[in-house]
Amino acid sequence: MTILVTGAAGFIGAHVARALLARGERVIGIDNLNAYYPVALKHARLEQLIGSQPGFRFVEADFADEAALGAAIAGEALTGIVHLGAQAGVRFSIDAPRAYAHSNLVGQLEILELARSRNIAHLVYASSSSVYGDAAQLPLSVAGRADRPVSFYAATKRANELMSESYAHLYRVPMTGLRFFTVYGPWGRPDMALWRFTERVLRGEPLPLYNGGAMQRDFTYIDDIVAGVIAALDRPPADDDNEKPGGYFSPHAVYNLGNDQPEQLGALVDLIGQACGTRPILDLQPMQPGDVVATWADIDPARRDLGYAPATPLAVGVPAFVEWYRDYAGV
C-alpha cells in the first residue's frame, strides 16, 4: 500500500511514518516545514527517525495549496491518507488566526478533495481534545457536546470534523477522526509543557505553572498514539447506516486517543525533577486565555473498535523524554 502522511516532519507524523515503513508500507510524506518552531528539529526527525529508507519519499510542500499538493502526489496510486499536518498550538492561534484558517481549514478541504477525487479507501485525520473546551463533565466522551471552543485552534479542529462528516455523507469516503490528548515523548515539540519544563529545570530557571498549577492533563505517550493511529487506519468505518462513535451514520467515526489516566500538573513537574536530578523552581501564574483546567479521555469506543490499549504511564514516559532531550540538546 502507498500511504500519504501529511505533517511528516512533525512530532506525530514522523513517528507514524516510521511505523508504517517498518511494517512494509510505502509512504509519501509531505510537510511545508514552516517556522512555527525550529525547522532544524523537523529535519532531524526526518533524518533520525526515518532516514533514507527506500519506501519513503518526502516532498516539501504546502498541502493547503491545491497545485502543490497535486504535484506532490502526481502519478502516485494512493491507498490511504493519514492527515496529521496542521498549524499547531492553542495560544498562538489567539495571535495568528489566519495561519490556522489556511492550514487547518483550507488544508483540510484540499485533503478532503484529494480523498474524494482519488476514491481513497480510508482517510484518517487528526483532531484534538481541545474541541471539548472547558467541559465540566469528565471523562470527555465523543458522544458529548463539542461546540464551545475556547480557542480558535479548537474551533478549526471541530470544523475539520464537521467538514469530514459532510464529505463522508455526500461522497461515502470512509473517514476517521482522532482526538489526541496531550501527546508527549521523544522528538516532541518545543512549545509543549514537557519540553519547556525540562529545558527550564536543567537551566535552573523557574517553571511558569498556569492556574497556580491546578491543572489536569491526560498525558499520552507517543508510542501509544502511533499504535492508535495505525489501528484506526486498518479499520475504516463501514458504510452501513449504523451509528458510529461521534454520532455519525455515514462511514465516519471519531475517537478519543488518550491514556485514560489524568495527572495533576504537579506530578509531571515532580517526575521531570526526578529525571533531571534537581528540584524544580515554581512560578505560579494565572490561567491563560484559550487554556482548559482538565482533560480526561473516555477511550472505551477506541478500545472496543480499534483494540486501542495505551500502555505507557507518565512515570515511564517522562524519564524517556528527558533522556532523549538531554542527548538531543547535549546537556
In words, what does this structure look like?
The chain has 331 residues and is of the alpha/beta class. Helix 2 (39-50) links the parallel strand 2 and strand 3 (56-60). It has one domain (2-181, 221-258, 297-310): 3-Layer(aba) Sandwich (Rossmann fold), CATH 3.40.50.720. Helices cover 40% and strands 16% of the residues. The strands form four sheets. Strands 3-2-1-4-5-6-11 form a seven-stranded parallel beta sheet, with helices on both faces. Strands 7-10 form a two-stranded parallel ribbon. The model has no long low-confidence stretch (mean pLDDT 95). The radius of gyration is 19 Å and the shape is globular. Helix 1 crosses helix 8 (222-233) and helix 5 runs parallel beside helix 6.
Quick structural overview:
This protein has helices at residues 11-22, 39-50, 66-72, 92-95, 97-117, 152-171, 193-203, 222-233, 265-276, 300-306, 314-329, and strands spanning 2-6, 26-31, 56-60, 80-83, 122-128, 175-180, 183-184, 207-209, 216-217, 220-221, 252-257, 263-264, 282-284. The chain is of the alpha/beta class and 331 residues long.
